[in-house]
């Protein structure tokens, strides 16, 4: 199709705009009587019909798209998301994994508590001192799950408790210490600390229970 | 004009503004509400821009992910729908640049092929729509984008201009050129 004029002088482009966009004809009276215009309009209507049909197709996002997007975002939030604190002089961003490291070190500092890394492993074997590099490093991340929104933090932590220690009190102490350390070291507000006790272990100086 | 475009021309919806504010503060549920609101609209754009449902899905996912990561820097200078559609179009541009050119047919085969699909094949309605899809994909991307947004996705020229960073009049000119190129391609294939 060229941008040519019809023999009657009407621009073909104007007719295409009329058909494609529904714009009003420049000269409706002329168009009603001009055979060139009517023929060209009929041709363009036929040409543009499949475009209209395609544009009218009911196209919807695949069913799993929302879930896929949110799964990626949750993954980002767990691993890469940062707390953001703003003041007039600028922003401070603290990565979620840093908050996780603070939480794990805080939990490990509570008597009778060892982080549970999953798979039955504990961060600090019985009878050994906690290694801050190990507890705060990436291998300790399985023990905590950190959610951050703005300057609010939610911590899920998995621990093993020494056999004989009062679990409720130990869990309360873990909650309290994590909340305090995060506030002191990062300035963030901890709104929840969910403690999951996944194992008990012999206290230092005692051997492991038979059968375990 | 589609419902999406009508709503895009209205001033910012207070509920949407609230979702954006909450999402900016890290609220995943609020962002999920935005995804739910705009996923169909964006997918419609992406599928016409890329011509492939899987590529379209990937591009939309990437656009939402990029939006989530950059929300702290989004302060409502534009409507959220404008902003995220701009991200999507940019991703389509990038994907287009990164894609390998189609391998040409061997010369012997190419010589025996008609230069355009047979007219009788395209006479079938479903095939005519396929012809439009192919013609759309044959357009340069700077023409395809305004046409996809205005003709296939229901955005006004003003909104299309805001998405593409063009004035309304420049958008109209590009859309018009694209329409003419599309019509020419369709005419050749009849």
Task: Give a description of the structure.
The complex is a heterodimer of chains A (212) and B (190). With 212 residues, chain A is α+β, with helices and mostly antiparallel strands. Chain A contains seven helices and seven strands. Chain A has two domains: 12-56, no CATH class; 83-201, Cation efflux protein, cytoplasmic domain (Alpha-Beta Plaits, 2-Layer Sandwich), CATH 3.30.70. Chain A is 43% helix and 24% strand. In chain A, the strands form two sheets. In chain A, strands 3, 4, 5, 6 and 7 form a five-stranded mixed sheet that branches. Chain A is rod-shaped. Chain B has 190 residues and is mainly α. Chain B has one domain (3-98, 119-188): Orthogonal Bundle (Rna Polymerase Sigma Factor, Chain: A). Chain B has eleven helices and no strands. Chain B has helices spanning 3-9, 14-24, 28-50, 53-70, 80-98, 107-112, 119-122, 125-138, 141-152, 157-164, 168-188. Chain B is elongated and about 55 Å long. Chain A: Pfam families: Asp23 (PF03780). Chain A: Keywords: Transcription, Transcription regulation.
First and last CA, distance of chain B: 28 Å
The residue-averaged pLDDT of chain B reads 80
Mean pLDDT of chain A: 82
Number of helices of chain A: 7
Helices and strands, with pairings:
The complex is a heterodimer of chains A (212) and B (190).
Chain A: H1 12-21, H2 28-33, H3 35-56, H4 65-79, E1 82-87, E2 90-95, H5 96-108, E3 113-118, E4 121-122, H6 132-136, E5 144-149, E6 152-162, H7 167-186, E7 189-201
Parallel strand pairs in A: 6-7
Antiparallel strand pairs in A: 1-2, 3-4, 3-6, 5-6
Helix pairs in contact in A: 1-3, 5-7
Chain B: H1 3-9, H2 14-24, H3 28-50, H4 53-70, H5 80-98, H6 107-112, H7 119-122, H8 125-138, H9 141-152, H10 157-164, H11 168-188
């Amino acid at each position: 199709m060229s941008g040519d004029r019809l023999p009657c002088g009407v621009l073909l482009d104007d007719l295409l705009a009329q058909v494609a966009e529904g714009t009003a004809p420049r000269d409706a009276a002329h168009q009603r009587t001009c055979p060139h215009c009517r023929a060209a309009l009929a041709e363009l209507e036929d040409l543009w019909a499949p475009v209209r049909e395609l544009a009218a197709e009911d196209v919807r996002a695949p069913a799993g798209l929302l879930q896929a997007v949110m799964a990626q975002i949750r993954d980002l939030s767990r691993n890469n998301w940062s707390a953001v604190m703003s003041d007039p002089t600028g922003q401070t961003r603290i990565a979620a994994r840093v908050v996780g490291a603070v939480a794990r070190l805080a939990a490990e500092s509570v008597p009778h508590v060892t982080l549970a890394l999953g798979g039955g492993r504990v961060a600090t074997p019985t009878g050994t001192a906690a290694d801050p590099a190990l507890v705060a490093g990436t291998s300790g991340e399985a023990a905590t799950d950190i959610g951050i929104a703005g300057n609010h933090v939610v911590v899920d932590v998995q621990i093993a408790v020494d056999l004989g220690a009062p679990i409720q009190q130990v869990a309360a102490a873990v909650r309290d210490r994590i909340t305090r350390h995060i506030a002191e070291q990062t300035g963030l507000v901890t709104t929840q600390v969910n403690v999951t006790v996944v194992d008990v272990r012999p206290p230092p100086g005692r051997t492991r229970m038979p059968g375990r | 004009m589609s419902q999406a475009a009508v709503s895009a021309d209205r001033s910012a919806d207070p509920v949407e503004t609230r979702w954006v504010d909450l999402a900016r503060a890290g609220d995943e549920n609020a962002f999920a509400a935005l995804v739910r609101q705009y996923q169909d609209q964006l997918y419609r754009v992406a599928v016409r821009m890329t011509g492939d449902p899987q590529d379209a899905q990937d591009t939309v996912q990437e656009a939402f992910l990029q939006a989530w990561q950059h929300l702290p820097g989004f302060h409502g200078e534009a409507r959220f729908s404008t902003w995220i559609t701009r991200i999507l179009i940019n991703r389509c541009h990038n994907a287009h640049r990164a894609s390998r050119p189609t391998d040409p047919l061997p010369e012997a085969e190419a010589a025996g092929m008609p230069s355009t699909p047979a007219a009788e094949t395209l006479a079938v309605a479903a095939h005519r729509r396929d012809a439009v899809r192919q013609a759309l994909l044959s357009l340069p991307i700077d023409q395809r984008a305004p046409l996809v947004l205005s003709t296939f996705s229901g955005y006004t020229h003003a909104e299309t201009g805001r998405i593409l960073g063009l004035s309304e009049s420049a958008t109209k000119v590009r859309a018009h050129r694209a329409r003419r190129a599309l019509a020419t391609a369709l005419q050749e294939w009849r």
